[in-house]
Structures
1.
Amino acid sequence: RYMKRQVACRGDIDSLNAPMLAIYESLIPAEEEMAKQKQLLALLEKIVCKEWPEARLYLYGSCANSFGFSKSDIDVCLTIADADTNKSEVLLKLADLLQLENLQNVQALTRARVPIVKLMDPVTGISGDICINNVLAVVNTKLLRDYACIDVRLRQLAFIVKHWAKSRGVNETYQGTLSSYAYVLMCIHFLQQRRPAILPCLQGMKTTYCVNVDNIECAYFDQVENLFGFGSHNGESIAQLIWGFFSYWAYCHDYANDVISVRTGTILSKRTKDWTRRIGNDRHLICIEDPFELSHDLGRVVDKYSIRVLREEFERAAEIMQYDPNPCVKLFEPY
Ligand code: 3AT
Ligand code: MG
């Protein structure tokens, strides 16, 4: 395997456990915030079902995948039969209904890549987006949430990585860096690859959950309560894992040839995916396979400029975790 550099981690790495966990704790949303999100969802359900009785609403994204910070917006998916032909009409109608019920800042963005209605609820103070029939996102939200139940170190690692990415300005897909969804997949993959493994590969196990979404079969083992303690043979601490994550992306990942794949729990080659050359806007400079939409590379937003920014940030983070006297401050310094 390709190894640019392999270093042993600093001797005092475990002194970083407590301060890193304190940062994690400070980012977790409080119970009452989750209750308010549920309250807003119930209000939206009431409004929607008056007009479309058979429609359903689902929370997805960080408010439902257990990787959400406190004070995040909520992402809601409206499922409704036959809306795909006239999504814009449904969104405009929905925007009218919301306005009539006194929701604020209501705006239908019908031409966006993922068309949505934006809203703010003056009662709870929560903002959110509603999209239509984006069922794959609802299913990948469940997959992430199920992984998070298996070992708490996933949630801790992903919170720190997301916090780092937001602080350093590398969580902006419109600027060619990666989505939060991509970072969480990178964390899951990383924990699947530890030896002993900290996470299993749920899609490689017996199917206990199966749905067909837009002709994609989404099947995996979702009885995760039976997997509690799976990673207990691996005693690595959160500080060691944060160090390992950044070192992996700074020095060990083979950007020229490798695709990380949560679906298989392994690394695939770009050649087998036919991701070796630029097609249209997809450059495949860092490759992260979507667990269900297999032709979808979450790294496709990355261009030849932003790949440099990303790799420099991974190297900066790895160096800080290795040598800096105060990594818990330095890692998250605004760029
Ligand atoms: P934040 O806390 O809002 O940063 P998030 O988990 O809500 O993180 P995103 O806003 O990036 O993540 O995306 C919202 C959800 O939409 C997450 C995932 O279920 C889905 N999603 C996002 N990007 C993709 C993608 N490229 N392909 C498939 N699903 C995606
Ligand atoms: Mg979000």
2.
Amino acid sequence: KPKVTTMRTFAKSTKLDNVLYDVRGPVVDEALRMEDAGIHVLKLNIGNPAPFGFRTPDEVIYDMRQQLTDCEGYSPSKGLFSARKAIMQYAQLKNIPNVSIGDIYTGNGVSELINLSMSALLDNGDEVLVPAPDYPLWTACVNLAGGTAVHYLCDEQSDWYPDMDDIRSKITDRTKAIVIINPNNPTGALYPREVLEQIVEIAREHQLIIFSDEIYDRLVMDGEQHISIASLAPDLFCVTYSGLSKSHMIAGYRIGWMVLSGNKSIAKDYIEGINMLSNMRMCSNVPGQSVVQTALGGHQSVNDYIVPGGRIYEQREFIYNALKDIPGISVVKPKAAFYIFPKIDVKKFNIEDDEKFALDLLHDKKILIVRGGGFNWPFPDHFRVVYLPRIEVLKDATAKLTDFLSYYHQN
Ligand code: PLP
């Protein structure tokens, strides 16, 4: 008879100790519990266009349907030739230098490639400069790979551009790379050429790799142009990320890519590591890859949303004007993507804990936002709103928020 001993239990890896992903964290769990109890929750927390009535362009659906039976097998690990050819042309249009077809990798969303490229690079203790606020997957993947995400501040007073002095002050002899998210999630900032040039200058001076997350590069408003930082840094090694989740409303198809550019000779060994990890995952979702060529060619239907009269543009106008008029809230107008990152007057409401603020708003008004801390913002004074819902819904949400803040006081 086997001896009865105490039951063995299993804990998560300590590698996860410094990993945080609040976009789907504890406040979201509470919202799900409320929904299970039959309570309707207004979700302003996830940047997923499809549930808000943004449809995938017809030609993409048609293309996927036509190709489905041809996509039964694995593709080459970096991706189908047709997809990579289209991405290469896209990179050329954006003046990204020294890119050939072998420098392009498709992934199950940009997410997989962020994880893969951090894992292939970092040794324990290596430092990567990551913006605060950031899209938190960057911090999570740097830390999961054994590195240390060192946060540099973006400055709300300067349209949320990176603070160059803060970047400089955080560079050490362990710093290997700098991450930028442009256009930015959660702030909606779009970086002009002068800002990008200053970042390139710092990277050049300290021999850093530049990782640029540009998944919102086709969601830019007010007639502004998106500039890929890699186009300004032919002498540095750069990795640029983009994909179809946001511009083509197909986050569920899981299709993203990364492009290696510039001075690849200094990263030969790192690229070998990337290739190994890319081979190990076999390939990314092939039906997803099969629509890239069609999606990137010709008319971009997202363009209709981001001009006056278009849904994303008009919803931005609405949310910006509504938020800035709420007593105790101030906000910078976003230029791109579909997020806004307002500031709350913490003194007025006595806010010390932004998770509690998010939970209190959820319980009282059934509105789900993400606290600033979820984006590695070091103060409890911000939250992110996704303005994908229609104006009627946003109107309801901002009216409820106004009412909530008329009595809220954190104890
Ligand atoms: N990068 C940023 C800045 C994002 O906001 C997101 C999704 O919200 C991603 C990457 C992940 O996108 P994907 O669907 O391609 O994995």
